[in-house]
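Deliverable D4.2, example record:
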Amino acid sequence: MTTTAARTARIAEHRTHPKDTGSCEVQVALLSDRINALTEHLKTHLKDNSTRRGLMKLVGQRNRLLRFLQRTDVKRYDALTDKLGIRGVKSGA
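Output generated by the structure prediction step:
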């Protein structure tokens, strides 16, 4: 799990203005942290299907946010996917 300090640091790293806590960049970064943590959990707990379902829901939500960002501002989308090291979503889906 992420601590409050780690979460606050992640928000500060990806925010677009000083009071930003909910932009697409921040949401995708926080979702990516949760996805990575659940992925590590599932490596040791292979039969934890409820966690696997939650992981799939988080991945879907992150993909929806990335698709929105790709439609609205490609530069921000490219910068975010490069910064987080994720592949992004396929266009035209």
